[in-house]
Specification:
The protein has 410 residues and is of the alpha+beta class. The chain contains 13 helices and nine strands.
């Protein structure tokens, strides 16, 4: 592995940082999350269109840049630094790869160019808040998380005579909560259970909320406003099957989980790096007992420990992105371990930042509280850390003959 970034990768990072520095300050973030979509639509069009962020990892034949997980992770490290509220994770991190992997040629031609240009935003609707399980991050992905029958979730059934009025052939019924960006997405990929009890299986369905009947979307009150969530209710909503009925959806979601983990890890590292930078600046300027608090040895030691933790988490995130990009495809545990380390680091750095800022660290006007909320919220959404590590241990076969949880219990 060559740890040095290429000139092109450095250019992506530099360009994105320059744009976000001018357009995504703390005040602008607060204003953006209170809009109806939950993000600055003008800034998103700029990032998706002129910068090419939405299509960074989409093949060039569909209008994308044709880059890989490493470039997407570098971009997300920069968006994480400013806590950018945007459809980036749902659109480029979740929906676009699934369409590219499972969609028919017609579906790829129809949807991916719009995603690459930023005209289409997307969200993955997984029932019951089971996104970490669906992506294979905290438990094996066996498909049962999609519900069906008495388990609730979302069920899919063929329309009358096997066809629905729009020709898609499927109706969806059920509910998905905690859908990231689901209240404003132009396109929903809905995981639903079909086939009954005996031959039940999980499939993905393409749904356009603006055109389909029977769809209700409600934005939820979230701890982290910069990562908006929604509840999606489906009442015989018309949808089209993504790909064909023989697709291995659980397996593809588990494979996608490795790249998503790397991207989320890089995003958390960016946030941790920024809040540490902010805390060091405060320690240099805050005077107590006639001298800057950063000159006290105890404070120096705490900041030094945080710096080492951030650099270690960054190395793990970069390795995970490099591994999932094809150079080390057998290292399936790298993504989960990198995400666990990055989330833990962000939590520790944000917590120490609140302490070292004193009372202002928890005030609404200060930006530190935004990073603390991101740290807590992300661990609730994608963790917790100990389950990420337990799952990675299972994948790596560290505990032969028993799962990581069983080994810990012993």
């Amino acid at each position: 592995m060559d740890a040095a970034l290429s000139e092109e990768q450095e250019s992506i990072r530099r360009t994105l940082r320059d744009v976000l520095r001018d357009r995504c300050g703390p005040g602008q973030v607060r204003a953006a999350v209170r809009t109806e979509p939950g993000y600055d639509e003008e800034l998103w069009r700029l990032l998706a269109g002129r910068v090419g962020l939405a299509g960074l990892a989409v093949a060039d034949r569909y209008g994308g840049a044709g880059r890989g997980p490493t470039e997407l992770a570098l971009a997300c490290e920069e968006t994480g630094r400013v806590l950018l509220p945007s459809p980036l994770l749902g659109t480029a991190g979740l929906v676009a790869p699934l369409i590219a992997a499972l969609g028919t040629p017609e579906q790829r031609e129809e949807l991916l160019p719009g995603i690459s240009s930023g005209e289409l935003t997307g969200a993955l609707a997984v029932p019951g808040g089971a996104l970490p399980t669906a992506l294979g991050l905290t438990a094996p992905n066996d498909g049962d998380w999609a519900g069906g029958g008495r388990a609730g979730g979302v069920q899919a059934r063929p329309g009358p005579d096997g066809r629905t009025p729009d020709g898609s052939g499927w109706w969806l019924y059920g509910e998905a909560s905690q859908v990231l960006g689901g209240h404003s997405a132009d396109l929903l990929l809905v995981a639903a259970r079909t086939g009954g009890y005996v031959r039940g299986r999980t499939l993905l369905f393409v749904l356009r909320p603006a055109a389909a009947r029977g769809v209700t979307r409600v934005r939820l009150t979230a701890l982290d406003e910069t990562r908006p969530q929604a509840r999606v209710e489906l009442r015989d909503a018309e949808a089209a099957l993504l790909g064909d009925a023989g697709a291995d959806v659980p397996g593809e979601l588990a494979r996608l989980g490795r790249s998503v983990a790397a991207v989320l890890a890089a995003e958390a590292v960016g946030a941790a790096d920024r809040v540490l930078e902010r805390t060091v600046g405060h320690a240099r300027s805050r005077v107590q007992f006639g001298r800057p608090i950063g000159s006290f040895q105890a404070v120096k030691h705490r900041l030094a420990d945080l710096y080492v933790a951030v650099q270690a988490a960054r190395s793990a995130a970069y390795y995970a992105a490099w591994a999932v990009g094809g150079d080390a495809t057998d290292d399936g545990a790298a993504g989960g371990l990198a995400l666990a380390q990055a989330l833990e680091t962000l939590r520790d750095v944000a917590g120490e930042a609140v302490q070292l800022h004193g009372g202002i660290g928890v005030t609404w006007e200060h930006e530190v509280q935004l990073y603390f909320k991101r740290a807590v919220s992300d661990e609730l959404l994608f963790g917790p850390v100990h389950r990420l590590r337990a799952r990675a241990a299972d994948e790596a076969g560290l505990f032969a003959g028993r799962t990581a949880r069983e080994a810990v219990a012993l």
